[in-house]
Amino acid sequence: MEDRLQMENGLVPQKIVSVHLQDSALQELEDQASSGRAPVLQPNAELSPEMEPSGDRRDGPEASGACASKPSRDSAEDSEPCAPARHRHLHLSSCHECLELESSTIESVRFASAENIPELPYDASSSLEGASDELSLEREGRRGNATGKAPNILLYVGSGSQDAPGLLQQVQALLANCVDTDSYLLYPLSEDSARRDPWPDSCLLLVIAAREPIPEDVHGRFTAYLEQGGKVLSLSSSFRLGGWRVASKAALQRSVQNLVFSKVGRGDVKLSALSSGCVYKEAPGEPLCPGRLQGHLENEDKDRVIVQVPFGVHGGEAVLCQVHLEVPASTSVVRTQEEFNLLKSSNIRRYEVLKEILTALGLSCDAREAPALTPLYLLTATEEIRDPLMQWLGRHVDAEGVIKSRKLSLKFVSSYTPEGEISPSSIPVVTDTEAFSSEHFNLELYRQNLQTKHLGKIILFAEVTSTTMSLLDGLMFEVPQEMGLIAIAVRQTEGKGRGPNSWLSPLGCALSTVLVAIPLRSQLGQRIPFVQHLMSLAIVEAVRSIPEYQDINLRVKWPNDIYYSDLMKVGGVLVNSTLMGETFYILIGFGFNVTNSNPTICINDLIEEYNKQHRAELKPLRADCVIARAVTVLERLIDTFQDRGPDGVLPLYYRYWVHSGQQVRLGSAEGQKVWIVGLDDLGFLQVHQEGGEVVTVHPDGNSFDMLRNLILPKRQ
Questions:
Q1: Region of residue 294 (phi > 0: left; psi between -120 and 50: alpha; otherwise: beta)
Q2: Contact 193, 201 (CB under 8 A)
Q3: Distance CA 569, CA 547 (A)
Q4: Please, are residues 136 and 124 in contact by the beta-carbon 8 Å criterion?
Q5: Which pLDDT belongs to residue 498?
Q6: Global model pTM greater than 0.70
Q7: Checking CA distances to 608, which of 126, 259, 412, 481 falls within 20 to 30 Å?
């Protein structure tokens, strides 16, 4: 109906069902129609359990098939009596005749009306041919698939459980992180709909995640869907198939186990996973051969917990799981800090396994297209600095309002229209920001948390940019130092890491580059490698200096990483410095996960876990708040370093770093063992050798783990 069918008195129909009518009821309806009285359905009329079209088909405009009968008005005009107890099937979206009639009707109305009626949402099935096929491929730009079905992924979590709504949200979030939600539609499938509605016709994948037993009639419907060539993913449910039975093992229930996931011909993936407490067993006398994907626990019995099961002769296939791949580490089911750490450390591999399963079931898990670049907005942390800034701009832009540099051209405009072109090398900058608003960046919150004399006062903000490291390129040598520049983005399409590495920039990551000017002949100017340590320390201190947040286990890893404990990377720092005359102009880029739990871990995960373990109520943080606090701490650390040198900041640095007493090897994996003891006067690692000597070591130049293959510098 697509919300287009209206009834009198503003009533909107929600559902159409077919009804079995007895001969007497049909005769009564005919008598009422002939006398002009409106028919009334009795409340106890028996509902048909199925709404699917009849299997009988006839060609021609008067055929039945999916559209069995003409409207009763036509029958009356033809003076044809109604056959007793005849079923009058509904016209479905898969009916070719109905689709053509609907399309032609909409076209007629469109030509006759000034309104631009939108296209119908995509809902074509594989039975459509010709023009309807072409129409279905264009609707909403949804990705095509081999079956020709609508790209619907249906999620069944049962209906009797109190946890069902929360479980549905978990499964939706999980799949949204695996597949492109612009290409697939995620819909809940209720127990009633599973029994009654014709969902198999438009279901590309059925995901079953119900915790309670599945009713037999619903189970039968799911099996029938598989027999027709359907695909099923069962996540810790009681769904059984093809001779595999579900056996309970109480010792495994809600425990974190080592899982070995096998991809035939492509090696194994090992990870930690939360067990459901059930395993798959072969039914007696039915030796089975699992598909190319399988998983077992790394225990004495090598219990099978993932099996791939082909079904039927039409290509039906199911992957059955008895480990909670759908459950994040932050779930209340996870009881201890150790279990949380194990699951979070395996989070990337959990998604690797999920994507492998979804791909085997015919879905595409390709990387999504990068979002379109957006204009920059020129914002200020205080109103007092705005007038001097605009005056400075008036003197430095060319006749077209452009400031050019080697990498970038910034065109300053009062407003921006969507027709304007944006590229990584040419970006409009909107200067009239009275109407500025962003869901992800609150300027007032940033202002409240920024307590600096100079840093971070002038903001270039973008919803989406290539990389914040390039945005300040044309301004860094020109803008007066008291107008501290900072670039902030919500998303990056080409985030930079150390060396050739890239930095993933998902939504929820704090992304920024701040400009710092350091006199060459100063404490820090003579020890520039310390800049990256100060920025890493500033980010950690920005969080842990908030009252009651001091025990959030955020730490620094030499030389430029932010870590959760010593387990997982939460963020990183990248420093580019240029010496001009007697001044270092330093771009400090940093990115750290604040609200994005995937693909690894974020600061709010740590806060949520801390609340759970300590029954606390710490509030989650925002990226804009933490960026402002980090820049504030950075300025304070720089001032302290300039006054007192390394000794002024190292005690705080050592409080938060992960390396105390850590053992590393020099040169190679088989090299000499040494113990990290601290930083030297220039910011390089000092290690204690077995002979008792403390020496400085340098990285060997690899960009993956700078603690690997450390080398002793040559003595001169």
A1: beta
A2: no
A3: 24
A4: yes
A5: 57
A6: no
A7: 259
Query: pLDDT value at position 512?
Result: 95
- Which of these, 686, 581, 588, lies nearest to 638 by C-alpha position? 588
Dihedral sign (CA 391, 396, 402, 408): negative
d(CA 34, CA 151) in angstroms, rounded, equals 46
Dist CA 99 CA 91 (whole Å):
9
Q: Which residue reads 């949204």 in tokens?
A: 176
pLDDT tops 80 at residue 399: yes
- Residue 206 pLDDT class (50, 70, 90 cuts): very high
Indicate whether 501 pLDDT > 60: no
Say how far apart CA 136 and CA 122 lie, in whole Å.
6
Tell me how far apart the alpha carbons of residues 503 and 301 are, in angstroms, rounded to a whole number: 41
In angstroms, the CA 539 to CA 629 distance is 8
Residue 170 binned pLDDT confidence (cut-offs 50, 70, 90): confident
> How many other C-beta atoms are found inside a 10 Å radius of the C-beta of residue 709?
17
In 74-159, DSSP assigns E strands to: 152-156
Beta strand 663-665 with 205-208: parallel, antiparallel or unpaired? unpaired
3-state secondary structure (DSSP) of residue 134: helix
pLDDT of residue 563: 94
The secondary structure element, H or E, covering residue 195 is: helix 191-196
For residue 256, pLDDT beyond 60 = yes
Q: Please state, in angstroms and as integers, the Cα–Cα distance from residue 546 to each residue in 242, 446, 450, 456, 648, following that order.
A: 56, 15, 14, 20, 21
Q: Which two tokens stand for residue 83?
A: 């056959």
Beta bridge partners of 297: 259
Long-range CB contacts for residues 573-576, cutoff 8 Å, separation at least 24: 573/532, 573/535, 573/536, 573/539, 574/469, 574/496, 574/497, 574/498, 574/503, 574/532, 575/531, 575/532, 575/535, 576/469
User: Which DSSP symbol is given to 423?
Assistant: B
Q: What is the pLDDT of residue 286?
A: 57
CA distance 405 to 603: 36
Neighbours of 43 (CB within 10 A): 5
Burial class from Cβ neighbours inside 10 Å (0-12, 13-18, 19+) for residue 153 reads: buried
- Cα 206-119-102 angle, rounded to 5 deg: 90
